[in-house]
Amino acid sequence: MGGAAVRVDTASPVPPYERIRAQLASLILTRRGAGTRVAPLPPGARRRETAELAEVTKDFVARTRALGFGEEEVLEAVRRALRT
Fold first, then answer.
1. What residues have CB less than 8 Å from 13, skipping those under 6 apart?
2. Are 63 and 12 spatial neighbours (Cβ–Cβ below 8 Å)?
3. Exposed, middle or buried, 62 (CB in 10 Å: 0-12/13-18/19+)?
4. pLDDT at 1
5. Above 80 in pLDDT, residue 84?
6. Residue 77 located in a structural domain
7. What residues make up the domain containing 79?
8. Does residue 40 fall inside a structural domain?
9. Nearest 5°: CA angle at 52, between 49 and 57?
10. Does the model's pTM come out above 0.70?
């Protein structure tokens, strides 16, 4: 899985923590009296993750079918796995 990266230019006169803070500013919400929280993802940010989920799900279903498991058995196994 890929993702965003924080980069620090070691030749920059700006202190590294300031460079990191500037890069992370869009990911953090700070409100007086409400604390600091992680910002919601921008629209469309989940598209890649959803595509990856669909891909691994297809692979999983293909393997379970090859092993001879039926739909209800697979669904129950997934439900059990999600509860753990």
1. none
2. no
3. exposed
4. 45
5. yes
6. yes
7. 47-83
8. no
9. 125
10. no
Q: Token pair for residue 20?
A: 């990191």
In a domain, 74, yes or no: yes
The answer to whether the CB of 6 falls within 8 A of the CB of 24 is: yes
Domain count, the chain: 1
Q: What is the pLDDT of residues 1-59, one digit of tens each?
A: 456 678 888 898 989 888 888 888 878 888 888 888 888 877 766 666 788 889 999 99
**Nearest residue to 45 (alpha-carbon basis) of 10, 77, 79, 2:** 2
Query: Would you say 78 and 65 are in contact if contact means Cβ atoms under 8 Å apart?
Result: no
Helix (H) or strand (E) holding 59: helix 47-66
DSSP element (H, E) containing 58: helix 47-66
